Amino acid sequence: MFESIRAVWKPAMYHGFGKRRRFFEGWYFKCVSPAGDAVYAVIPGISLGAGGESHAFIQILDGLKRTSSYHRYELSEFVAARDRFDVRIGASRFSLDRINIDIATDVPIKGELRFRDVHPWPVSPLSPGIMGWYALVPAMECYHGVLSFNHRIEGRLAVAGQSIDFTEGKGYIEKDWGRSFPKAWVWTQSNHFNEPDACLTASLARIPWLGSSFTGHIIGLWLRGRLYRFATYTGARVSRLEISPDTVILMVEDRRYALEIRCRRQEGGVLAAPREGAMTGRIVEAMTATMEVCLSAKVRGGLTQLFADTGRLAALEVAGDTDLLLAGVDRKPD
User: Fold this and answer.
1) Fewer CB atoms < 10 Å away: N or C end of the chain?
2) What does the pLDDT read at residue 333?
3) Number of other residues whose CB lies within 10 A of the CB of residue 74
4) What is the C-alpha to C-alpha distance for residues 221 and 260, in angstroms, rounded to an integer?
C-alpha cells in the first residue's frame, strides 16, 4: 500500500505492487540514432491477465523496417525496485538513466544505452505529472506518464549481430499502466525539430467516466525550457479534429495560446496492447510520420506566432473507433 501511494508522485516507478490480475504496466523508450538511420522503440512491461495468465515482456519495434518482436518472460523474471524506477526482466535492466538489453533469440539484441539530460513532465503535489489531478482518481482505466521529453543517448545496440551506434542520438521516454488501453485514441510525439530541444507529445482518448465517457486530451509542447500544456484538466478545448487515411489535424486552444498540429500518416509496425491486463490487443504504430506544429499567442484579439516547425521521425498511433473521438470533441464529462 505504501509503495502504491508513493508511486502516484513518482510516475516512472512500478505501480503494480499488490496487483494480481487485470493490470498492465509498460515503459516506452524511443531511441533514434544521430543520422536517423536507426529508429527503435523498446517497451518492457508486465501483463497480469483477468484469468490469472501473467507474464513479463519486452517488445522491440524497428521503426524504419516497420517490424516488431515480442519477447515473453516468466513472471518470476520481473523484478522492480520499491523506491525508484529500476526494473529487471530476465537479463535486461531498465531505468531513467540507462537500459541494458540482453535478449537471446534467433534475432539476438544486446547492448547498453545511457541517457543524459533527461527532462520529465513536472510533478507537483496537486498535479502528479502529465495527467494532472486525474492521476489522483482511483480506478482509471489507463494512466499515463511522460518521463523524458528529450535526452541525449550514448552507447550501442547489437541487433542480429549488426552494431548500431546511438551516441549523440535522441531519446524520449513515457509509460502507461492500468487495466486497458482506451476504446479509441490518437497519440503522436516528436523531438526531431529544427529547434533541437523542442518536443511535442499529444494524445486524445475516449475516457470512461462515472458510467459514461468523454474525449479527453493531454498535450505538452516542451520549448525553450518551458512547458506549454493543453489538457482537459487545464480548461483547454479542442477546436478542430480531422482524421483521414493520410492526415490527422488537431487544433487546441486556451485563453492565452492556440496550437495546431498536422500529422502526415505513414505505415507502421504491429504492437501488442493490453485488454483487461492481458496483451491480447493489436495496434499499429508508425515511427516515420511527420508533424507540422504551430504555436501562437492570443494578443489583442489576434494571433502572434511563437513557434512553427516540422517534426520528423514522429511516432503516431490512430487506434480504435475514432468516430468516438470525433463525436466527443469539446464535450465535458457527463
Assistant:
1) N
2) 43
3) 11
4) 11
The residue length of the chain stands at 334
Report which of 165, 140, 150 is spatially closest to residue 35, judged by C-alpha positions.
Answer: 165
Closest among 172, 154, 136, 176 to 63, alpha carbons compared: 172
Name the residue with cell 543524459. Answer: 116
Q: Is the pLDDT of residue 2 over 70?
A: no
* Percentage of the residues of the chain whose pLDDT score is greater than 70: 97
By C-alpha distance, which of 143, 152, 87 is closest to 117? 152
pLDDT score of 330:
57
Distances (CA, A) of 251 to 68, 260, 263, 293: 32, 4, 12, 10
Residue 29 CB contacts under 8 Å (≥ 6 apart), including other chains: 41, 42, 43, 94, 99, 113, 171, 172, 173
List CB contacts of 163: < 8 A, sequence separation 6 or more: 156, 157
Question: Are 135 and 143 contacting, i.e. CB atoms less than 8 angstroms apart?
Answer: yes
pLDDT at 244: 97
Distance CA 152, CA 210 (A): 42
List all residues 6 or more positions away from 211 whose beta carbon is below 8 Å from its beta carbon: none
Residue 7 in 3-state DSSP? helix
**DSSP letter assigned to residue 326:** H
Whole-number pLDDT of residue 5: 63
**59-113 pLDDT per residue, tens:** 999 999 999 999 999 999 999 999 999 999 999 999 999 999 999 988 899 999 9
Amino acid at 13: M
- Reference 296, options 255, 243, 247, 238; nearest CA is 255
302-320 and 278-299 strand pairing: antiparallel
Q: How far apart are CA 287 and CA 38, in angstroms?
A: 11
